[in-house]
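R.M. (postdoc): so does anyone remember the format we settled on? I'll just put the structure tokens first.
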């Protein structure tokens, strides 16, 4: 049994809906086969975009989509991906499978996808192998309304009105695939690219400097020191305001001893399961570390922290291209996601965006495509069940007494995780029981409000390794049966290895 107190009348920072963001890279079958099948495909599509994928993601209210990478972004030259498809040059996707990319999915296709999804585009500029001019012209092409050279080119390519592009990434992993730079060299470059990443008309870019790997807090510090003239988010760029408004970092849940042995996505024992959860839970400490560095330079919290790649990374599915990073997705992945979201909600005062890697067919995917079949993964259901947290006010939730835990190696892993928020007269509580074998009774003392009728949803399966395929879907959401409320005391029984959400009206 675990007891916790929820202060439902003390709303805290807003949980930015962009914490539920997504990522689509030209990698394996994410874009090609995942989002894009082409207009001639027998798979139902609109202008080449897969409609089942669009529909499934619209149901999640996905707030933004990051593209074209990842490592690919720093090899991508946007001019190769506009104009008549038959005239577009090909290129080699050197990072992912060394395959030939035909550029049939380019800027217009991506922006059409965002429009269909109702998602904000997050475009990553090529800083590693591109030029400042190339990046500046891409923004002009995307967002300028008048008769400028790039706006004219866009019109020649069939799009009259400019698009709205709120999020603009300045490269990706510059310490690695994005150019092998040190933090100082990259910070200088980010300032340069940021300076020429102009706002056109009423399109205001939120420029995101490419950040640290995991707990490299020094990288974050150097970025904060080089931000621009002033700390803070400027309405107008270029003169007197910052050259970038946010800094990012990446954190993957990787369990194995080496890159060549990260473990199977579907075949793992209980020890490996718990070690996965230790890695996932580390996000709390890493978020706190970056936030502490940022607080020292930016106590008013005007600079955003963005986790624009996160998720599990296991060995690829046997028999698939090692460069395509295709892995199955089990209930374990879903619990990794729920633990991350609890940490995101607790750091909502600093963390403004996060992007799961990646949306379709790559790493911790929401969706898997198999020919014309679409599979909703267990992770997808966590995003769906947590939808009520989008733009809600976070609520303080504290365990009273000892948090259930177990010793895993030299770490004490909390096996209970929870977070809560309030919006539109309702409260949503997310609850995770990580224990592999034992159920957990949760008693939540809800303070400061009258609790109305309660409804709950549950995600679990007999096995932690359960996963969905085109022919078998053992991991689905059901109604939470074991939930009751007496006065302000909410009592829930969480089965072993489960995630639940409980929602109720408050007055
Ligand atoms: O998501 C796969 C890759 O992981 C991305 O391209 C890169 O940024 C990271 O290393």
């Amino acid at each position: 049994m675990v007891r916790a107190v929820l202060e439902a009348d003390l709303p805290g920072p807003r949980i930015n809906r962009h914490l539920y963001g997504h990522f689509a890279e030209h990698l394996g079958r994410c874009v090609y086969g995942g989002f894009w099948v082409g207009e001639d495909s027998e798979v139902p599509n609109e202008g080449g975009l897969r409609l089942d994928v669009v529909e499934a993601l619209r149901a999640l209210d996905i707030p933004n989509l990051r593209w074209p990478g990842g490592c690919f972004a720093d090899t991508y030259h946007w001019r190769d991906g506009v104009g008549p498809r038959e005239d577009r040059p090909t290129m080699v996707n050197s990072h992912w499978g060394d395959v030939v990319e035909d550029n049939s999915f380019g800027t217009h296709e991506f922006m059409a996808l965002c429009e269909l999804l109702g998602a904000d585009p997050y475009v990553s500029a090529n800083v590693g192998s591109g030029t400042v001019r190339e990046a500046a012209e891409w923004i002009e092409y995307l967002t300028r309304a008048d008769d400028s050279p790039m706006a004219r080119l866009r019109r020649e390519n069939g799009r009259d009105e400019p698009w709205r592009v709120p999020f603009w990434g300045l490269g990706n992993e510059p310490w690695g695939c994005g150019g092998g730079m040190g933090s100082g060299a990259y910070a200088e470059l980010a300032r340069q690219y940021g300076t020429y990443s102009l706002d056109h008309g009423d399109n205001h870019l939120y420029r995101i400097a490419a950040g640290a790997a995991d707990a490299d807090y020094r990288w974050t510090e150097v970025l904060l020191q080089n931000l621009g003239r002033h700390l803070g988010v400027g309405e107008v760029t270029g003169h007197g305001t910052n050259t970038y408004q946010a800094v990012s970092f990446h954190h993957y849940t990787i369990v194995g001893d080496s890159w060549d042995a990260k473990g199977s996505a579907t075949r793992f024992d209980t020890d490996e399961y718990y070690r996965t959860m230790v890695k996932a839970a580390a996000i709390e400490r890493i978020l706190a570390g970056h936030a502490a560095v940022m607080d020292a330079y930016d106590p008013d919290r005007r600079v955003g922290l963005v986790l624009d790649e996160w998720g599990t990374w296991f060995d690829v599915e046997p028999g698939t291209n090692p460069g395509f990073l295709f892995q199955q997705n089990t209930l374990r992945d879903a619990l990794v996601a729920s633990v991350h979201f609890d940490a995101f909600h607790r750091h909502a005062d600093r963390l403004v965006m996060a992007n799961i890697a990646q949306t379709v067919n790559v790493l911790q995917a929401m969706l898997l495509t198999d020919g014309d079949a679409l599979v909703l993964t267990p992770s997808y259901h966590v995003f769906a069940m947590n939808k009520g947290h989008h733009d809600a006010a976070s609520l303080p939730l504290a365990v009273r007494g000892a948090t259930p835990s177990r010793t895993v190696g030299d770490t004490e892993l909390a096996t209970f995780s929870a977070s809560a928020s309030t919006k539109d007269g309702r409260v949503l509580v997310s609850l995770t029981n990580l224990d592999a074998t034992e159920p957990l009774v949760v008693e939540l003392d809800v303070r400061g409000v009258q609790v109305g009728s309660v409804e709950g949803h549950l995600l679990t399966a007999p096995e932690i390794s359960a996963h969905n395929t085109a022919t078998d879907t053992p991991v689905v959401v059901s109604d939470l049966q074991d939930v009751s409320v007496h006065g302000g005391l909410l009592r829930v029984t969480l089965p072993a290895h489960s995630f639940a959400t409980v929602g109720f009206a408050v007055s």
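R.M.: ...and that's the designed sequence above, right after the tokens. Also worth knowing: The pocket of alpha-L-arabinofuranose is lined by residues 25, 69-71, 172-173, 309, 357-358, 363 (CB under 6 Å). The chain has two domains: 17-249+303-390, 395-506.
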